[in-house]
Amino acid sequence: MPSSKTELRRGIDALRRGEWDLAHEVAQADESAGGHWLHGIVHTIEGDEGNARYWYAKAGRTFPGMGHTDAELDALAETLNG
């Protein structure tokens, strides 16, 4: 079974390719803080601010606003590499 980090990287890559549905599946399957963070980013890209805020709160992160998805994907990827 792939590690959570491997799956989260797959979700990040999917979002960067515009594959929202795949990224959402990955996020829904991961109950870690990183999975919740990814879930928040997914809903930010979708344009659903209320849902994005919910998932950011579950991840224990401050919601950065609707225009920061690239930076958030970079930050999540960096966290997974650390």
Structure description:
With 82 residues, this protein is an all-alpha fold. Helix content is 74%, strand content 0%. The chain is built from five helices and no strands. The longest helix has 14 residues, at 33-46. The model has no long low-confidence stretch (mean pLDDT 95).
Write the layout of secondary structure elements.
Blueprint: H1 4-16, H2 20-29, H3 33-46, H4 49-59, H5 69-81
Index terms:
82 residues, mainly alpha, 5 helices, 74% helix, 0% strand, globular
Largest sheet features: none
N- to C-terminal distance: 21 Å
Q: What's the total count of β strands? A: 0
- Please state the average pLDDT score: 95
Q: What value does the Rg take, in angstroms?
A: 11 Å
Number of helices: 5
**Secondary structure category:** mainly alpha
Enumerate the spans where pLDDT stays under 50 for 5 or more consecutive residues. Answer: none
Helicity, as a percent range? over 70%
**SSE order in H/E notation?**
HHHHH
Strand content: under 5%
Q: Which word captures the global form?
A: globular
Provide a brief overview of the structure.
The protein is an all-alpha fold and 82 residues long. Helix content is 74%, strand content 0%.
